[in-house]
Amino acid sequence: MFNIHTLGPKDTNCEKAAHYWLEQKKLHGNVILHETLEDAVEKIKKDTDCILLGCIVYPYLHNIVFKNLNLLKLTDCFVMDTHNMLFASRFNEFKKIKSVGSHPAPKDLISEIHHLNPSIESILFNSNSESALQCAKGTVDACITTLKAAESNHLTILHDFGPVPMGFSIHTKIN
After folding, report:
1. CB–CB of 109/85 below 8 Å?
2. What is the C-alpha to C-alpha distance for residues 169 and 151, in angstroms, rounded to an integer?
3. Most buried of 1, 48, 122, 142, CB within 10 angstroms?
4. Same domain membership, residue 92 and residue 73
5. pLDDT by residue (tens digit) across 122-168?
6. Which pLDDT band, with edges at 50, 70 and 90, does 64 fall under?
7. pTM exceeding 0.70
8. Are both 159 and 169 inside the same structural domain?
C-alpha cells in the first residue's frame, strides 16, 4: 500500500481529491495530511512508496515542481468539484465580523462579501480547513472554507459559493 501526501488538516479539498483519485484508479492507499505541500515534499524524501497530490491553484506549486525535478515528476492531472466553498463564522451577523481567515488561493472570495463590511481584515492560513479551525478558536471572526470544515468546526454558514471545478496534480517520486 502506498501513501498520498497532500495538504491538511482534515477536510481539505486536497484530502477529498486524494480519496477521489484512489477511487477512480481503483487503488488502496493512505492519505497523509501535512500543514503545507512543502512539508509534504520533505516527508516524501523519506518515504519509499508514495506520491504528492497538489492543487493547481496552490500558491507556489511551480516552486515545488521546479525545485524538485530530481525527486518528483508530474504524472497525472484531473478535475474534480471541490467541497462547497463558504463564507462561515462563529457569528450569525455580518456586522460583528472584523477579521476573515482564508487560504491564499480562495482569498479573493472575501471581496464577494467585503461590501457588507469594508473594514474587514483578512488573515491568511495554510489551508481552508485551517481557516475554519482558527475561526472556531477565535483567531478570526469568519473564514473562507469548505462546507465539510465549517460543519466539523460548528460554524454558521453566511454565504455558500458552491463547489468549484478544480484541477489537481499527481507527482510521482522518481526512484
Report:
1. yes
2. 27
3. 142
4. no
5. 999 999 999 999 999 999 999 999 999 999 999 999 999 999 999 99
6. very high
7. yes
8. no
What pLDDT is recorded for position 45? Answer: 94
User: Of 35-44, 97-106, 117-126, which range is least confident?
Assistant: 117-126
Q: Are the C-beta atoms of residues 72 and 174 closer than 8 Å to each other?
A: yes
98 lies in the same domain as 154: yes
Is the bond preceding residue 118 a cis peptide, omega within 30 degrees?
Answer: no
Q: Is 76 exposed, middle or buried (0-12, 13-18, 19+ CB in 10 A)?
A: middle
Asked if 86 and 75 sit in the same domain, the reply is: no
Alpha carbons within 13 angstroms on the beta-carbon side of residue 24 total 11
32 and 59 in one domain?
Answer: yes
Bridge partner list, 101: 123, 143
CATH number, domain at 12?
A: 3.40.190.10
Residues 96 and 46 in one domain: no
Domains held by the chain: number:
2
139 by Cβ neighbours in 10 Å (0-12 / 13-18 / 19+) ranks as: middle
Q: Give the range of the structural domain holding residue 93, as residue numbers without chain letter.
A: 82-163
CA distance 79 to 164: 10
Residue 71 and residue 19 in one domain: yes
Residue 80 CA to residue 26 CA, distance in Å, equals: 16
